[in-house]
Specification:
single chain; 591 residues; four-stranded antiparallel beta sheet; rod-shaped
């Protein structure tokens, strides 16, 4: 435990302030009054500084007892500890110390005075906690790589990169890299905070990018995330190309803090937006992002400014807590999304099996119905043929009656009646013959206008404009089935649109035609498109009592019957295009 907290208790002589300020350029001046009971250690709480001078009031004058500059190797330190600390040869009594320093991003030091035993215990606890935290983070990284090996989702790569950034940042926060890996390369130690902090922010943005598929769902948020990544890259380049010159400085770490603050607001906005849209894992992502922002931006920022809200906690512990909470929440979000994805896959397989069984049963019933209809028409045609035989015999008898003058009016009346009956039977047999033909010629433009005339009053009632693209194309298909398909698509487009235009038309494609119904409705997510093609599933904007959720299911079934393919292209909040792709092989004629 510290012996006493260091405070600004005494005034610094003006002559010393002026001389040090002139020599240091930008720096902070702190006077300290401490109460000691023997040899002590002044812990500065940071792994390195840009500039540091420690003075002690001795023999009626200020004497320099320690100095540190960014170009000095690690072995110039008085204590070989990851964080800067200065041993003080003190006896009982009060002492006056003076600190003149400048640290990254113009932060504030919070020095603490320890006796020898308290300092040793603090170091042991610090190493123990750091080891445990690093172990947890490495475990999460291994789990991410393991999940990625059995899954095709790119989110695991992004999560692994994010955890790797945290794992790489923790030793830098403590100063282990400088002590153990490159003690003779202080310039590298000054550069690493910029690189690793940029990696953490960039990997966080990349994780949100792929986890929520931002380009497909949120174009504006996608643009904002790309802008953050570009600013991080420009700041790295500027930090290397614009070194300090005289009194003019480009402080890349200070700029990075501003970028991090802006991205923090963007990350929270993304979390809230995805949570509001009920995306998988959005709640856990929100909790992880909020934890990181509170610990690294708010609490760490207040600590750097010397306003630590919890003085008993070293403010360098806040980002570690934030990294750990974010890693745990994001890991839970990935597991939640994976579980939900597998649940959806299971439900889709069950739905496909049910649909296959229903389609097989429907196909069997259709074939039975066709056989029964063909048998009925053949029997009707045979009966008509058989009836025509006695009628022909009657015609011969009538010819005999006509030869008798007295019976001629009656014969003529009977002849006209039989001729009418024969005409009816001939028409019936002709219709039976035509019913065995596989299709009919449908003029698409005429069909579109017929459907538009039927639905235009409903569209006008909702404030929509229903437009038809004129066409002279014809198809050899079933007029009834194609009409049912387009009836369902137009009804859905008008039902779910609240403004704008509903358009129906046809386009030529290579070896195919594509009938399109476009709307300016709320749009759909890819998973919603798959769900809506199942039976009894409605869109999120459906009103109670408005449809039962069979429209797209019927369309898909009828398209399969004719050999067509239903396609859906939709952009969230921009509208949808429902199209019927008619391959040339499914028709005798395109004209």
């Amino acid at each position: 435990m510290p012996l006493s907290a260091c405070t600004e208790a005494i005034a610094v002589p003006e002559s010393l302030q002026q001389s040090l300020a002139a020599a240091a350029g930008r720096s902070e001046l702190i006077s300290l009054q401490v109460q000691a009971a023997g040899p002590a250690v002044l812990a500065l709480g940071v792994p390195d500084v840009q500039r540091l001078r420690l003075y002690q009031w001795r023999q009626d004058q200020w004497q320099l007892i320690f100095s540190q500059d960014p170009g000095q190797p690690f072995d110039t330190r008085l204590l070989a500890t990851p964080r800067l600390a200065v041993p003080l040869d003190l006896s009982h009594g009060e002492y006056q110390l003076y600190l003149n320093y400048y640290i990254h991003a113009n932060g504030r030091l919070q020095p603490v005075l320890y006796n020898a035993d308290a300092w040793a215990r603090a170091q042991i606890w610090q190493h123990l906690l750091n080891g445990m935290l690093l172990g947890v983070m490495l475990t999460m990284l291994m789990l991410a790589l393991l999940y990625r090996s059995v899954s095709e989702q790119a989110a695991y790569w992004a999560y692994g990169l994010l955890v790797f950034g945290h794992v790489a940042m923790l030793p830098q926060i403590e100063g282990y890299y400088f002590q153990l890996l490159w003690p003779d390369m202080p310039q590298l130690n000054q550069l690493l905070p910029l690189l690793l902090s940029s990696l953490v922010i960039g990997s966080h943005a990349l994780f949100a990018f792929v986890f929520f598929r931002l380009p497909q769902r949120y174009p504006k948020l996608t643009l904002a995330h790309r802008l953050v990544l570009a600013l991080l890259l420009l700041n790295l380049l500027a930090g290397g190309l614009l070194p300090s010159v005289g009194e003019h400085y480009y402080d890349e770490l200070l700029v990075l803090v501003l970028i991090a603050f802006a991205y923090g607001m963007l990350a929270v906005l993304t979390a809230i937006r995805t949570h509001r849209d009920h995306l998988a894992g959005a709640t856990l992502y929100l909790l992880g992002t909020f934890s990181l922002m509170v610990c690294t931006m708010l609490l760490m920022g207040l600590g750097v400014l010397g306003l630590n809200p919890f003085p008993f906690i070293d403010f360098f512990q806040y980002p570690k807590i934030g990294f750990l909470l974010e890693t745990l929440f994001f890991s839970a979000a990935l597991i939640s999304k994976m579980w939900q994805f597998r649940q959806q896959q299971t439900e889709q397989r069950l739905h496909r099996l049910a649909e296959a069984a229903q389609l097989a049963q429907a196909e069997q019933e259709r074939r039975f119905a066709e056989v029964r209809a063909a048998d009925s028409t053949l029997r009707l045609a045979a009966a008509s043929h058989d009836i025509s035989q006695p009628l022909a015999s009657l015609r011969f008898a009538i010819d005999v009656l006509k030869q008798q003058q007295a019976q001629q009016p009656l014969a003529e009346h009977i002849d006209r009646t039989i001729q009418y009956a024969q005409t009816l039977l001939s028409d019936i047999m002709q219709e039976c013959k035509q019913s065995h033909q596989p299709g009919e010629t449908v003029q698409l433009g005429a069909l579109f206008h017929l459907l538009a005339a039927e639905y235009r009053p409903l569209a006008v009632q909702k404030g929509l404009q229903l437009r038809v693209v004129p066409s002279q194309l014809t198809l050899d298909t079933s007029f009834v089935v194609l009409s049912r398909i387009l009836h369902n698509l137009l009804a859905n487009a008008i039902r779910y649109s609240h403004s704008g235009t509903v358009l129906i038309g046809v386009r030529r494609r290579p070896q195919a035609l594509e009938i399109q119904v476009l709307d300016r409705g709320p749009g759909l997510l890819p998973e919603q498109v798959q769900r809506l093609q199942q039976a009894f599933v409605q869109g999120g904007n459906a009103q109670a009592g408005n449809g039962v959720g069979l429209g797209l299911y019927i369309v898909q079934t009828l398209c399969a019957q004719l050999g067509y393919r239903l396609q859906v292209h939709s952009v969230l909040r921009r509208g949808s295009c429902f199209s019927i792709l008619i391959p040339q092989a499914a028709n005798k004629e395109f004209s």
